[in-house]
Amino acid sequence: MKLIFSELILLITKKQERNIWALIKFFIALIAMVTVYSTLFHFLMIFENREFSWITGFYWTLTVMSTLGFGDITFTTDLGKVFSIIVLMSGIVFLLTMLPFTFIQFFYLPWLEAQARARAPRGLPAGTKGHVILTSYDPVAINLAEKFRQYHHEYVILVEEVKLALELQDLDFKAAVGDLGDPETYRRLKVEDAALVVADVDDMMNTNIAFTIREISKQVPIVANADLDDSVDILQLAGSTYVLQFTKMLGQSLARRVLGTTTRANVIGKIESLLIAEAPAMRTPLVGKTLQQSKLRETIGINVVGIWERGRFQIPTAETLINSTTVLLLAGSDDQLNAYDEKFGKDRKYQAPVLILGGGRVGRAAGDALLERNIEYRIIEKKQKLIEDERYIYGSAADINTLMQAGIKEAPSIIITTHDDPTNIYLTIYCRRLCPNVQIISRANLERNISKLHTAGADLVMSYASMASNTILNLLKPDVLLMLAEGLNIFRVVVPPSYVGKSLAESQIRTQTGCNVIAICDPGSMCINPGPFDRFSESNELILIGSGEAESRFFKMHSEMRKIEAARTGV
Questions:
Q1: In the structure, what pLDDT confidence band is assigned to residue 516 with cuts at 50, 70 and 90?
Q2: What is the CATH number of domain 262-344?
Q3: What CATH class is the domain 487-569?
Q4: DSSP code for 272
Q5: Statement: 2-119 belongs to CATH 1.10.3370.10
Q6: I need a labelling partner for 187 at 20 to 30 A (CA). Which of 2, 272, 488, 499 fits?
Q7: Which of 470, 477, 435, 429 is nearest to 453 (CA)?
Q8: Is the pLDDT of residue 3 over 60?
Q9: CA separation for the pair 496, 537 (Å, rounded)
Q10: For 354-464, which CATH superfamily applies?
């Protein structure tokens, strides 16, 4: 009983205090009513020449008000019967209606809320170190949490609502309840010993979070997302270590995937001295040859670690045929990529501009990135206030006349950037029907819609959540995980014990998992594109490339290695 009342006291606010006083007044009124009815009962019984004890008076009043009505004591006069009706009706109102409501509203529900608050954690256990604090519940946080679970890294999602925290716990996510602007919240979450704090709410709240944390710790790294350009400096002044603009980064990433303007290798990722690049095969001597016939490894030393065909990634074999629509995924050093460009790289000036559907932050960022590469573009935008210059075309992207005015038939590539996935799917289907051979690059907001966009005809799909989460992961532990495109990752692990002493060919990593080894690392050195007879030692680390499914298959096969990898890399 003491525990219940102590929990209720913790829940008392000014509003709840008023409610409690109303509850007390209700019980006082109810007791007074029962007392008055019991007194009147005695007077009316005396009027009928009958006498009962005071206990009997209370007994009769309660049995009538509760509608039990045992019938052992009844009035014989009309006055007594009218009084009985009044007692009965007031009992129905006060005992059967108002009493349960007030009990549930002012006692039972606060008790349940206290139980829920007690179940939702407000802090982390003593000794917790190296964890990541996520200050929002959104697709980015969920994507990060799933990756942290995969790599056995400690994290916590901080939310302000108890109900949401309990829902996250039911989904097997680690969550805590607290005020985002309260320093005590971050003290309970051991922010001084955290590896990283991610502030991804809005610009004002992110500023508040960073400034609040800096009151407690000056060293913990803080990653903040800025929606507006004007907020970047303010977030830095508030104490953010890294200020990123995820929407702008997404637009730039989409623009980098535009093909056809050059056959040069476009670097899309880097892990130490290992560079990952994409190069279109169209209009090069490679078209029509197999990888074995191309002799890229023998002549240049570069390795084709994957190929894209209409948005579908596959690990190539020696007999894989290079088509005009093939995009080569190359892994090599800076010198090797330069050698590739000297032999195959050519620039081509397109007369027709790239078409961008959607003139929001992502679309504008994609346009700016294209302009930096001297590639013209046109943006179709249906909101008049977002129209900036002659490169913008006012109208709906679903209108055939607007698309024709923008030059869809001549456009080498189409970038779809709206923040609504159903709209993106709709536009992808429409554009693919109008232009079967054009390159379509689309944005995805929810990962479940990625496969739909590919099916609709998109050559390449990039997810906002995956891009943001992988950027944060790379800041947390550089050179460990790199996302090249949606569903295609480069990841770094220590050599599993079962591979020690074996050669690359003997390990059969590609056959068993679908992952390709693109580098073997030793302390202080890296062997890029190892040969089939290079052997693994206990001190080696592997850099592999593969789809999300291949990566999961690799970790599933080597579950004992996951803990070793997590301990050594911290991710």
A1: confident
A2: 3.30.70.1450
A3: alpha beta
A4: T
A5: no
A6: 2
A7: 429
A8: no
A9: 10
A10: NAD(P)-binding Rossmann-like Domain (3.40.50.720)
| Coil, strand or helix at 57 | helix
Q: Would you tell me how many other CB atoms lie within 10 Å of the CB of residue 42?
A: 17
Angle in degrees, 0-180, between the axes of helices 109-119 and 162-170, rounded to the nearest 10: 60
Which tokens go with 282? 């169209």
Query: CA-CA distance, 325 to 437, in Å (whole number)?
Result: 9
- Residue 213 is encoded by which pair of tokens? 């944390």
Q: Tokens representing 220?
A: 């913990």
| Class of domain 132-244 (CATH, top level) | alpha beta
Segment (H or E) for 343: helix 334-344
> Residue 535 corresponds to which tokens in the numbers above?
């052997």
pLDDT grade for 568, boundaries at 50, 70 and 90? very low
Scan for tokens 């009997």, then name that residue: 56
Comma-separated ranges of CATH 1.10.287.70 domains in the chain:
2-119
pLDDT tens digits, 364-399: 999 999 998 888 999 999 988 888 888 999 999 999
Tokens 């969920």, located at residue:
142
3-state secondary structure of 513: helix
Measure the CA–CA gap between 413 and 259, rounded to whole angstroms. Answer: 7
What secondary structure does DSSP assign to 193-218, as a single string? G-SEEEE-S-HHHHHHHHHHHHHH-S
From residue 88, alpha-carbon distances to 29, 53, 65, 83, 467 in Å are 16, 21, 5, 9, 69
Three-state DSSP at 95 gives helix
CA distance 140 to 148: 12
List, by residue range, all CATH 3.30.70.1450 domains of the chain: 262-344, 487-569
Structure tokens, 539: 């001190």
3-state secondary structure (DSSP) of residue 154: coil
Residues of CATH 3.40.50.720 domain(s) within the chain? 132-244, 354-464
Cα–Cα distance measured from residue 514 to residue 485, given in angstroms and rounded to the nearest whole number? 17
Q: Which conformational region is residue 272 in: left (phi greater than 0), alpha (psi within -120 to 50 degrees), or beta?
A: left
Edge-to-edge strand list for the sheet holding 303-309? 266-271, 274-280, 326-332, 303-309, 312-314
* Distance (Å, whole) CA 186 – CA 217: 10
